[in-house]
Design a protein that fits this description.
- By secondary structure, this protein is an alpha/beta fold.
- The chain contains nine helices and seven strands; from the N terminus they run E-H-E-H-E-H-E-H-E-H-H-E-H-H-H-E.
- It has a single domain, classed as Rossmann fold.
- It has a seven-stranded parallel sheet with strand order 3-2-1-4-5-6-7, with helices on both faces.
- Helix 1 packs across helix 9 and helix 3 packs parallel to helix 4.
- The model has no long low-confidence stretch (mean pLDDT 96).
């Protein structure tokens, strides 16, 4: 497929976990994929090598989306190597569970920097550069509906993302670009499982009526739907992919 005819997707925070699953699914769907990462070049390069081995077009691009300059360079690199962007998936994010009263200034700034400013930076670039008919998928969380202790700062960032999602969808009127968000429940990624006892894991797995943790591919399938042709009339929405948890 020529660079002119294939569609191009950026997936932020895509070196592992949900982001890696999304990148792999979009490559399977025929997109040329830019695997963004902030620090783990080894994992990002390994994923890109795997995608290329399966016949996909993929590149790894290091960028801290919390930095406006890095984000601009991310888009520059993708446009130069793959072409203008058709899909943006804002997966990059951090979660550190800490009571609000115990949250340091540094952790507050880091969490809002990556989760909110990072989303803002990529949305702003997408508004300037994305092809007409494009698709944007942001990431929220079902934790917003649960109000669990320790999640106040993280939930605050995701509430901001949901608000931006709904408003930005209207601001892009006339360009046939949809803007939606996915709000997963617990997902069996390394980041989620790390530091938890088997009892804690079993508790989270028992919470959804479907009786299990989500797998990264469960979320990747939802993203695939939202960026595909069948979701063209879905816009400004938050899809809570959580197995019925909330």
């Amino acid at each position: 497929m020529s660079q002119q005819s294939r569609k191009v997707a950026i997936v932020t925070g895509a070196s592992r976990g949900i982001g890696a699953a999304v990148a792999a699914r979009l490559a399977e769907d025929g997109f040329a994929v830019a695997v963004n990462y902030a620090s783990n070049a080894e994992l990002a390069d390994k994923l890109v090598h795997s995608l290329r081995a399966s016949g996909a077009s993929a590149i790894a691009v290091k960028a801290d989306v919390a930095s406006a300059a890095d984000t601009a360079r991310l888009f520059d690199n993708v446009e130069r190597e793959l072409g203008k962007i058709d899909v943006l998936v804002n997966n990059a994010g951090i979660l550190k569970v800490t009571p609000l009263a115990d949250t340091s200034d540094a952790l507050f700034e880091q969490t809002f920097g990556v989760n909110v400013r990072g989303t803002f930076n990529t949305l702003r670039e997408a508004a300037r550069r994305m092809n007409g008919g494009g698709r944007i998928v942001n990431f929220s969380t079902t934790a917003l509906a649960l109000n669990l202790p320790g999640y106040a700062i993280y939930n605050g960032t995701k509430a901001a993302v949901e608000s931006m999602t709904r408003t930005f969808a209207k601001e892009l009127r006339g360009r046939d670009i949809t803007v939606n968000a996915v709000a997963p429940g617990p997902v069996a990624t390394e980041l989620f499982l790390e530091g938890k006892t088997q009892e804690q894991i079993d508790h989270f797995a028992s919470m959804p009526p479907l009786g299990r943790l989500a797998q990264p591919d469960d979320i990747a399938s939802v993203v695939s739907f939202l960026v595909g042709p069948d979701a063209g009339w879905v816009n400004g929405q938050v899809l809570r992919a959580n197995g019925g948890l909330a």
